[in-house]
Amino acid sequence: MLMDTDKNRFVIFGLNLLAIVVCIYLLKDFKTLLLPLILAFMLFLVVDDAVQFMTQRKIPRFLAALLIAGLIFLVFYFTGLIFYGGVAGVVDRFPFYASQINKHLVNLMVSVNIPLKDVENYVQTIQWNKIFDLQRIGTYLSMILTSFTAFFSNLVLILLFLFFMLVPKKSFIQNIAEGMDRRSAARLLEIFRNIKSKTKQYLLIKTAISIITALVGAFFLAVLGSDFVIFFAVTIFILNFIPTIGSIIATIAPLTFMFFKFGFGWRFILLAVSLMATQFIIGNILEPTIAGKMLRLSPLTILLALIFWGGIWSITGMFLALPLTVALVIVLENVPSAKVFVKFLKGE
Questions:
Q1: Which of 271, 294, 317 is the last residue of a domain?
Q2: In 212-244, which positions are buried (b, 16+ CB within 10 angstroms) versus exposed (e)?
């Protein structure tokens, strides 16, 4: 009897493991369809209440959904224009930076007491024309922007999904619940309400925090004479949605170009201190104070979520990592056999 129990546990474990592998395969293989659908659902969770508010003001639901979808399109479209315009400006400006790098590098090495003759000999061995080859830089930028480009190519599809989610008076979750028994329907609707509330709260707070971070960063960039202030402000805003990693990249990128332009001087140091202080104060003091323990995820879980969703859906997966993981935790909280796993995700 004991052997049968152990055998059943082994079979159940094997089936669960197989299900996880199949799910990962489907997530990767059906990425083209699933990503627009999930992004549309995330937007739906945020803007559905706005559509409800407009319908209560006697605006037809069809028109309200159309207005919301159109507004979202304009926001993403103009953000994309600024971003791509900034990338083009960076590429055009690279010859100037290449001509400045020798001077700044020599000054930096001399400032740390390296003999001038050794510095000059070292700098002369560096083939800057190859390092700053515009074709190679363009290739790297194209690789970085692949996910961003794919997102905008799917923007129309995302908004179509969103529109058809917003138009019906009853959500598709409510329609599914109507076909279930009362107890199961109540549990499903409760899970949906929790996911909607947490996701909406997270995205709205994160958007507000990202705007504040971008504006403060833009102020310091403009005062200290940085190039591409608007581009870097938009970059800070976008990358702030990627936990930890995004903040680091958003700080390093403008600092690199500040060094190219002015070298390792007081401007560079002041900008470094200002950007790092901004990220620390807003990310570690202001945001936790406003959001509280909304996410209820351990730092290890956040890191693993970034690796997992980033591995499946690249950069877009990193943006969606936290909302998707929070939704997963909410669902698993209603599965008795997953209590241990939920505690691990929460770091309890």
A1: 294
A2: bbbebbbebbeebebbbbbbbbbbbbbbbbbbe
Reported as a pLDDT band with limits 50, 70 and 90, residue 1 is very low
How far apart, in whole angstroms, are the C-alpha atoms of residue 253 and residue 40?
30
Residue with tokens 């309200």: 64
- Pick from 146, 122, 136, 163: nearest CA to 40: 163
* pTM of structure: 0.77
Q: Are 298 and 345 in contact (CB under 8 A)?
A: yes
Shared-domain flag, residues 288 and 212: yes
From residue 230, alpha-carbon distances to 84, 169, 216, 217, 329 in Å are: 11, 40, 12, 10, 37
Domain check: are 45 and 105 in the same one? yes
In sequence order, what are the residues at sequence separation of 6 or more whose Cβ sits closer than 8 angstroms to the Cβ of residue 57? none
- Which amino acid makes up residue 184? S
Taking phi over 0 as left and psi of -120 to 50 as alpha, with beta for the rest, 296 belongs to left
End-to-end CA distance of the chain: 35
Domain span at 334? 295-348
pLDDT in tens, 85-124: 777 777 777 777 766 666 666 666 556 555 555 555 555 5
CA dihedral in degrees (197, 158, 242, 347; nearest 10)? 40
Count CA atoms closer than 13 A to 56's CA, side-chain side. 6
pLDDT tens-digit map of 32-68? 778 888 888 888 888 888 888 888 888 888 898 899 9
**How many domains does the chain divide into?**
3
Mean pLDDT of 176-192: 77
